[in-house]
Amino acid sequence: MSESPAKNRKVSHETIEPGFEDQRIDNYLLKILKGVPKSYIYRILRKGEVRVNKGRIKADYRLKIGDEVRIPPVRMADPTAAPTPGKNLLEKLENAVIFEDNRLLIMNKPSGMAVHGGSGLSYGVIEALRAIRPDERQLELVHRLDRDTSGCLIIAKKRSALRSLHELLRENRVDKRYLALVAGNWNQNQVEVNQPLKKNTLQGGERVVRITEDGKPAITRFRVIERFRQASLVEARLLTGRTHQIRVHAAYLGTPILGDEKYGDTDSNKSIRQKGLKRLFLHAASLRLRLPDDEKDLFVEAPLDADLQQLLDVLRNETI
Predict the structure, then answer these.
(1) Is the pTM of this model over 0.70?
(2) Residues 106-152: pLDDT tens digits?
(3) Rounded percentage of the chain residues whose pLDDT exceeds 70
(4) 192 and 150 share a domain?
(5) C-alpha angle with apex 220: 215 to 222, nearest 5 degrees?
(6) What does each C-alpha distance from 132 to 44, 92, 138, 139 come to in angstroms?
(7) In terms of domains, do 300 and 237 share one?
(8) Are 127 and 201 in a shared domain?
(9) Of the given ranges (59-63, 197-201, 259-263), which has the lowest mean pLDDT?
């Protein structure tokens, strides 16, 4: 059986606009030809059916402003077949934007929403934002937050900004601070965890992260903000950006994040649910960074959701 999609899309010609330059032609095609198998895209590149400025190119060709790209007829995913975010959710996301300029936007991501589709999800934050703003063709996630984590999420509006922001992240020049409510208390006001992390996949496809000697370096600095009877509100500063890093490091200290069903403590979670917590208490509270050519830092704070703030008020009343 042939893997070629039925050719029901006409030949098209795309002119590369500012912001799309310097990316590989294969990556460009993967983004604009939604639903087309990767193997088919590489086949049409090998066969010379994709042309740039009327000439054949290889998959690693980097696009330039003004390049004319010929794309052969291929079957596109039916946009009407995929579920789309509801109007209420789209409005919620638009209202969640807490900073925006011509290069990027930062939103206070709601808990319970993935940053992108996949793994059984038809859409996430980035797909919903693209639906809200169809004219902004260069929207891209700069980094990720866990589905259950709320708070500051950066979206690039231009590829030039995406490159700059990725460089800042690689060089650890984005100061990211989180608020977490952990079970129990520490004797110290500040704790640094330097434990390597490695992703694993359990049976059934569930992804977990473990501390192992052969893992990637991971450092988290915790600082106590407020102590309660059986819990502590802490600030977590990431010096590396590993999957589930704060959650695993908090559990390593014997004080897991409350509401964490994967790495948390069953009894502590049950007790805090009775006080009103219905989600993971982890919030990306602030970001500080400086983009090239800027004279001062950009600092953005995302307020705690009302349900988390309400829980803290309940805990404060218990300590009186």
Answers:
(1) yes
(2) 999 999 888 876 555 567 888 888 888 888 888 999 999 999 999 99
(3) 89
(4) no
(5) 150
(6) 32, 11, 13, 11
(7) yes
(8) no
(9) 197-201
117 inside domain: yes
Residue 8: per-residue pLDDT: 47
Range of the domain at 64: 12-71
Confirm whether 169 is domain-assigned: no
Query: Do 146 and 274 belong together in one domain?
Result: no
pLDDT tens digits along 59-75: 899 988 888 899 988 86
Mean pLDDT computed over 230-256: 95
Kindly state whether residue 232 falls inside one of the protein's structural domains. yes
Same domain, residue pair 43 and 179: no
C-alpha to C-alpha distance for 13 and 141, rounded to whole angstroms: 27
Mean of pLDDT over the chain: 87
Domain termination site, one of 163, 184, 201: 163
Catalytic residues: 146
Asked whether 210 and 197 are in contact (CB, 8 A), the reply is yes
> Which residues, 6 or more positions from 285, have their beta carbon under 8 angstroms from its beta carbon?
151, 152, 177, 178, 179, 235, 301, 302, 304
Residue 77 lies in a domain: no
For residue 166, give the nearest of 151, 144, 146, 149 by alpha carbon.
Answer: 144
User: How far are the Cα atoms of 126, 127, 143 from residue 116, in angstroms, in the given order?
Assistant: 6, 7, 11
Q: What is the CATH number of the domain that holds 115?
A: 3.30.2350.10
Q: How far apart are CA 286 and CA 263, in angstroms?
A: 24
Name the domain count of the chain.
Answer: 3
Crossing angle for the helix pair 125-132 and 87-95, to the nearest 10 degrees = 90
Q: How far apart are CA 229 and CA 297, in angstroms?
A: 37
Asked whether residue 113 falls in the same domain as residue 188, the answer is no
Q: Which two tokens stand for residue 28?
A: 């460009």
Residue 115 DSSP symbol = S
- Asked if residue 105 has pLDDT above 60, the reply is yes
**Contact yes or no for 121/161 (Cβ under 8 A):** no
Give the model's confidence band at 2: pLDDT under 50 very low, under 70 low, under 90 confident, else very high.
very low
User: What is the average per-residue pLDDT within 26-36?
Assistant: 81
